[in-house]
Amino acid sequence: MIRFFDEEAVRAVLRWDELVAAMESALAAFSSGLVLQPLRTMLTIEEDKRYLGIMPVVSDDAMGLKLVSFYPANAGTAIPTHMAIVLLFRPDTGEPLALMDGRLITEMRTAAVSAAVTMRLAPPGARVLAILGSGVQATAHLEALRHVRRFEEVRIWSPTAEHAKRFGEEHGAYVAADAEAAVRGADVVVVATMAQEPVLHGDWLKAGAHVNAVGAPRPTWRELDDAVMRNVLVVDSREAVLKESGDVILSGAAIYAEAGEIFSGAKPAPAGETTVFKSVGIAVEDLVTARLVYDRISQPP
Questions:
Q1: Where in the chain do CATH 3.40.50.720 domains reside?
Q2: CATH number of the domain at 3-106+284-298, please?
């Protein structure tokens, strides 16, 4: 019988330290050619409002499919902009193992990947974190990044002032007057927005800072300006960002490496450089996370 795990079951077993390590291994395998994964198929139901993504993958440890709905029109409502279902199979026999809610998997694996990259690219003495955006990914990134760096100051800015105020109250973050005030002097910057035009400008960045950008997931949308994109650029998948990321496509930025190439040692982590990690999210991250959930729940007490 195929088992079903709801969001609370997923939440009960996922731990940041373990998930960050799993994402590092998954992306190293992906960039080493050990993962069979086509580009995500994104069906446009209604431009800028409703999309359905289909994401199959096969690796040594996990096989399956994620179906994800991306509904920007839900922003500001009680319904999430991203919802998903993950179907997990055994890669050796092809047997279906589990169906699980994928909303939290998507949330946590995205932030865990950023945390794994931050460990390699952010300055060792990073003390100031700036977050642009105040939604689900802002909170997840704050939690994940606190596991890899000790921040003495967290700053928050959001296009919606009341959302930034609420985030600041809940997480003890300083609410910046504008995006520039949040970013100036920050060692690590997270950009997690629904922006279609740049909200981060390169001349605000401190030399040697690291940026994790996970929003603007459409080929015509931007959250980073061209000056940001002229820094050392690392991505999760070259093929995926060149199809899906407006920040990469429209800037014509040169890609230094995939994150998995740095994790595997195929490319050195740039030292002392200002770095940008642009993430669109890929299926192997979801299925490896789902396998981790399945294994933890299936362990005998």
A1: 122-281
A2: 3.30.1780.10
The verdict on pTM exceeding 0.90 is yes
Each residue's pLDDT, cut to its tens digit, for the chain (301 residues) gives 799 999 999 999 999 999 999 999 999 999 999 999 999 999 999 998 999 999 999 999 899 999 999 999 898 888 999 999 999 999 999 999 999 999 999 999 999 999 999 999 999 899 999 999 999 999 999 999 999 999 999 999 999 999 999 999 999 999 999 999 999 999 999 999 989 999 999 999 999 999 999 999 899 999 999 999 999 999 999 999 999 999 999 999 999 999 999 999 999 999 899 999 999 999 999 999 999 999 999 987 6
**161 close to 177: Cβ distance less than 8 angstroms:** no
Q: How far is residue 143's CA from residue 195's CA, in Å, rounded to a whole number?
A: 22
Tokens of 46: 């209604």
Q: What is the dihedral of CA 8, 216, 120, 266, to 10 degrees?
A: 110
Locate 245 and state its tokens: 């990321």
φ/ψ of residue 226, rounded to 5: -60, -30
One of 1.20.1250.20, 3.10.20.340, 3.40.50.720, 3.30.390.50 is the CATH number of 122-281, namely: 3.40.50.720
- Name which of 122, 178, 173 is nearest 143 in CA terms: 173
Among residues 113, 49, 95, which one has the least CA distance to residue 75?
49
